[in-house]
C-alpha cells in the first residue's frame, strides 16, 4: 500500500548552535522492518530550514509500506557546515496502529509527537507534527 507522509513542522527544538542561538533543522525519515531496527528499506529527507528552532517543512513523501511489518523513524538534525550534523530528537510510528486500512482522503490528519533521545546523555526537547494518509 502507498502511504503518504506529510512532515509539517517542529516546535521548540533544543538549541545547538551556540553562536547564533538557533538551528538549521532537517528531518531524516527511515522506513524500517519492525523486528529489525537496523534495516532501512526506504529513506527520505526534508529540506533544511535555516536559523530557527520552530521549522516548518510542509513536505510530502510517498512510501510503499506493509503496515503489519513496517514502521517509520523520524530523526531531526541540525545542519552544520564545518562539523557533523547534530541530533535534535527522534520518534517512531508503528504503522499498524497509526494508519487507516485504506484512505482515499486528500487531507492529512496531523498528529504531534514528543521528541525522544537516542542515548541517556543527550538533551532533547520539542515536538514534531506529521500526517499519515
UniProtKB/TrEMBL annotation:
Keyword Metal-binding belongs to the record: yes
GO MF annotations in UniProt: calcium ion binding
UniProt keyword annotations, A-Z: Calcium, Metal-binding
InterPro entries noted in UniProt: C2_dom, C2_domain_sf
Domain C2 span(s) in chain numbering: 1-108
Any one Pfam family match given in the protein's UniProt record, by short name: C2
GO cellular component, one term: synaptic vesicle membrane
Gene Ontology process terms (BP): regulation of neurotransmitter secretion
Residue intervals passing through the bilayer: none
The protein, known as: C2 domain-containing protein
Amino acid at each position: 500500500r502507498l502511504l503518504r507522509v506529510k512532515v509539517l513542522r517542529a516546535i521548540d527544538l533544543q538549541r545547538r548552535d551556540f553562536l547564533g542561538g538557533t538551528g538549521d533543522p532537517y528531518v531524516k525519515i527511515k522506513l524500517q522492518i519492525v523486528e529489525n531496527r537496523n534495516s532501512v528499506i526506504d529513506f527520505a529527507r526534508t529540506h533544511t530550514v535555516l536559523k530557527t528552532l520552530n521549522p516548518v517543512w510542509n513536505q510530502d513523501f510517498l512510501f510503499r509500506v506493509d503496515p503489519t511489518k513496517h514502521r517509520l523513524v523520524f530523526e531531526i538534525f541540525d545542519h552544520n557546515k564545518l562539523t557533523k550534523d547534530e541530533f535534535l530528537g527522534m520518534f517512531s510510528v508503528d504503522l499498524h496502529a497509526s494508519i487507516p486500512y485504506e484512505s482515499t482522503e486528500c487531507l492529512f490528519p496531523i498528529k504531534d509527537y514528543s521528541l525522544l533521545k537516542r542515548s541517556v546523555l543527550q538533551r532533547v526537547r520539542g515536538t514534531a507534527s506529521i500526517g499519515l494518509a
